[in-house]
Design goal:
Length: 86
Amino acid sequence: MASREQIGKSIKEKRKSLQLTQNDVSKKTCVHKTTISEIENGRFTGSFDILERVIDAIGLQFIVAEKDHKLPKWNEIDALFSEDDQ
């Protein structure tokens, strides 16, 4: 599953590839420019409706898929519990 940061980055890249500013998308969607910035920076915690309006305006869509659970390999377990030496 993509993180909020990854989703935001994809949205930003698509918007820029269309040569649209955040203000352009704001006018097109009636979503405040600050909210679009929050989405693109992975900090948006609002409604799916708002997010859907933004992604629709730039030609993207959500695809729902089964969650992929990944367990660590044996040689990765020690690194998960090690403390940083700072």
